[in-house]
Specification:
It contains three helices and six strands, in the order E-E-H-E-E-E-E-H-H. By secondary structure, the chain is an alpha+beta fold.
């Protein structure tokens, strides 16, 4: 196995892009392998790493179909329902809590009860 070339932050050659940069251009990697690695040094931790892909081999992003859009809307709506009380929280329930804020912190008064 060969090692990937490593470039420092903002010093990658032309023609290479990260996944987010490809997406901003309306492209996707399209099954191509990672060709290089980008590293951004940090002071007290290891470097941030991003993988680079060739822009010339990237393919256009697949269009959103009505069925995909409906499935995504259904999945997002399900993430707003609290599994404890069954109410719609009105926001995406954090995975760290696993439930809405009133169920996670029952002793904390709501903003209406404070006055």
């Amino acid at each position: 196995m060969t090692a990937l070339p490593v470039y420092r932050w903002r010093l990658a050659p032309e023609g290479l892009a990260t996944f987010r940069q490809l997406r901003a251009l309306g492209l996707r990697p399209g099954g191509q392998p990672v060709v290089a690695q980008l590293e951004r040094p940090r002071r007290r931790r290891g470097p941030l790493v991003a993988y680079l892909y060739r822009v010339d081999l990237a393919r256009p992003v697949r269009p959103m179909t009505p069925a995909k859009r409906a499935a995504l809307a259904k999945a997002n709506a399900a993430r707003q329902v609290c599994p404890e009380c069954g109410r719609d929280a009105g926001y995406r329930i954090p995975t760290s809590l696993g439930m809405c804020s009133p169920c996670a912190y029952p002793d904390t008064p709501s903003p209406r009860e404070r006055h």
